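Subject: mismatched residue count in predicted assembly?

I count 1047 residues in my input, but I want to confirm that the predicted structure covers every chain. Input:
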Amino acid sequence: MTPEIVPQFFRVGESGRSHRFLARLDWTLVCAVLALTALGLTFIFSAKLQGGHAPAFLARQGFATAVGLLAMGVLALLPYSVFQTYAKGIYVISVAALAATLVVGTRLRGSRSWIDLGAFYFQPVEVTRLALAVALAAYAAARERDLRYWTGSFKPLSLAAVHFGLVLLQPDLSSTIVMGPMTLAVLFAAGVPLGLLGTLLAGVALALGIPLAATYFSVVGDRWIDRPVIHWISRSFQETGPLLLIWTGVAAGLAGLWWFLRRWRVNISGFALAIALVVVGGGVAASFVVDRAIKPYQRKRLIAFVDPAVDPLGAGYNIRQSEIAVGSGRFVGKGFLSGSQSQLGFLPEKHTDFIFSLVAEETGFLGALGLLVVYFWVVWRAFDIAMTARDLFGRYVAVSIGSFFAFAGLVNIGMAMGLMPVTGVPLPFLSYGGSGLVGAYMAVGLLLSIHLRRYIL
Amino acid sequence: MRNFPSSGFSAWDDRRIFLLSSLGTAAFALLVLRLFFLQVVRGPEMARQADLNRTQILPLLAPRGLVWVRNGSAEEVVLENAPRFSVFYSCDKKAGTGLEKIEAELRARLPGFESVIRRKLNEARKSGKITRVLSNVPTEAALALLERRVFLPGVNVLVEPQRRARYGSLACHVLGYAGEVDESELKRAGNQSVRSGQWIGKSGLEKAFDGFLRGIDGGLQFEVDAAGRHVQVVQRIASVPGNDLHLTLDRRIQSAAEAGLAASVTGRGAAVAVDPVSGAILAMASSPGYDPSAHLGDYLGNPALPFFNRAIQGVYPPGSIFKIVTAAAGLNQIQWDTRQTFFCAGLFELGNREFGCWSKHGRKDFWGAVAWSCNVYFYNLGRAVGVDAIESLAKEFGLGEKSELDIPGESTGLIPGRTWKKSVFRQNWFEGDTLNLCIGQGAATVTPLQAAVYFGAVANRGTVWKPYTVDRVTGPDNRVLYKGVAHVRHRVDLRETVWDNVHRAVEGVAREGSGRVAFRPDLKIGAKTGTAQNPHGDDHAWFAAFAGRPGEPPGLALAVFVENGGHGSAAAGPIARDMINAFYPPPDRP
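Triage response: the counts match. Full output below for your records.
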């Protein structure tokens, strides 16, 4: 801590304004996250009771809760402007941390996403995504006007791209997915042209869509064996050469269309064509990176979401069991520790990805609705804090965090109820996982700090 | 390059943040709706699904219906059910390992079933359901497996009612056998009520009357975890036994026929006895047979084809037993004079072709020719009658057509004629063909069943019955669910004097001709022997007969066929005699 900050930090207490700190603290937010954590701990106990591992899991998660609370307290007390001041440093450190993970990280379940800290493994991406949010917010706050132009978005996008690339290299698709809305939310709130956002989304769709289409075709390709054109396309998607040929053809087609339309006096600017070509080129290029990052089981899950018949016993099975778990909870639930789907092992990953299904099965509609309401309160508070923040930096950070909570909640709970494909995004505050919990608490700490200082202090 | 600013945007504009939070709100509203839909709207259905998940049913076979046959005026059970051990396996889906060990142990303890064990274990692993690996497991092996149960997770040994044939191979071709449904049968059944693991009839009456015989399987409902491990028994579901079949077969005749065939020259053949008054099958034997409750795989590859029901599936040249058709045609159509004689020197010349007789009979009239089965006489008779009359009368007797027995799988046989030859060989019918036909040779083939039905019609003076083996099916409260009814297929319309002469002729065969072996002074017996030349090997032996008490209509008609047995009277006659004696016990001799 620099000398500049420390006096200000102590001034809160010195000047007898500690009561104001406590009074201005967003207690409803604190209570909501504490309630969610307590619920999470309770149902991690339920999930792990059968194997007899409950005490160990509870101890780890309890420890993470303690660390998280501490981090939350520190971040709430710290004036958040300090992160704006040192945004560049934070960004560099976060990139270094991700790079280091790739080098010295431990590979667990196929991803080099973890750093061995002796007693436990730490997942840096849970914290570095907050650093990315801080860096983007700081940049957007400083270059408020630039961002309203297409060209001005290049730099923040590059900053984000480094993070995305490093996480994809681990490869950790689910963490990358939640970083998307965090980035887009900052840019959106900062006034980036909607066309640019649309362009970005189109590029992402291509980057994700091409490898998935290739997988889909490789699984069900024989279905079109008697339809030569579709069969040829489906085969081409599975090989690099023909694939590039197809997309070169698409690009040429776009250019040709543009040229013909010009001749028929339908004027479309060259800029639009250039953007379209960049989207195609960038999307196809990115698809090769994504192709290496998506693991086979993830592909199958994503495809099974579109076409469950592809893998009814594998990828489709988990979704089906989760839906049955949620649905069979009915109105009041089967009772704590009495869910047959979870206690007899039909529900997969019930302490992490599918913890919502476990809660829904054992507490029913009443309990699950309560969970949704409390969780939504956290999201709502984040956006409200963004709107009442005293400066643009705080505003953008809060928007980014709010989008993170909203998106992670939607994807995870949607997955548990069959609305979303299985991507492995954990539910903040509830899913087992210390790094995630600490990261979530740090995010809440930032929100609290922004909220505390919404008035000139 | 031009640049597009987002117009009129202020960095402090709350609208975009409001839009984001609205998106978030909409997302949560969607989640709440989905939650409501899953838990409240579809909750009951999902709860049922969870229950189905939670429990598995170990299906236990329902006892199949009993099968009864007659024994004189009494009835007795031939197919029943006996408690036997079955080995089940339910796979630990998560563990998956250890399967090799289990497979190795099962294969070691149940030799001879290696491929079945492998297939069933794989099935169990794929489906995750409790699967019957093997039924009818020898007691020692089952007890050994029970002892080792701790080391064989997922393996269960349970007692199930399984088919037992009380008299082993008795009437095995009529009864058929049942077994676990296989994949092709499951596919063919489509969405009918056949489930994998069920037992269904595979052949004979077990198959034809499967719908009656099959009960409703019960089972044990277990609570299982996702790995398929049993947690506890939830309930026991009682099975419903199948319905009983009461057959028209008479065990006395059936046993006599089977014993005779087994002791015959080649041990291969068939015998069918029908009741000329109703068409009920009193015996239907095919030799060699098999024991339906034994391991059927052992019979495969046997060159004598034990699964082949020669009585209805085999077609053979009828030989001289066909001569009754020719005789009846002659008597009826051209008023053949029974006093007319021909000289048999063992040969008959037609153009430059020679047609032989099996002996040199010398001069014979009609009675002598029938009694001694003289070919030369019948060549002359046949030529005089012509092929058309013989062909149509043979068909009226039900030869060369399926006899609509209630057991599936009948062969048709063949009675050749002008149109047949034209359509198959594009040739005209020659006189020589007629000569072959009139002594039951050439292209003519019949099944032993047809021969018996034909002799039944001879016995009852012209009624060709639809033969049947199932008299009735009775339900649990002895209610009759099905009744086998006598049904007339054809009526052979001959003048009464012709019938009198035919009867006189066949009785002559039994009394003083080639069929003397079956003669009994206390009965009215008509018979005809046959020695059918067979281009593939030794001659086939035939013996067709009917018997009845004097003054009563004949109560038994039969046909005995011994494959490659040689002379009809020597090879098939004694079997026919034993069958007649079984039906009409001979009076005690002092």
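Chain B touches chain A through 49 residues (CB under 8 Å). Marking this ticket as 'not a bug'.
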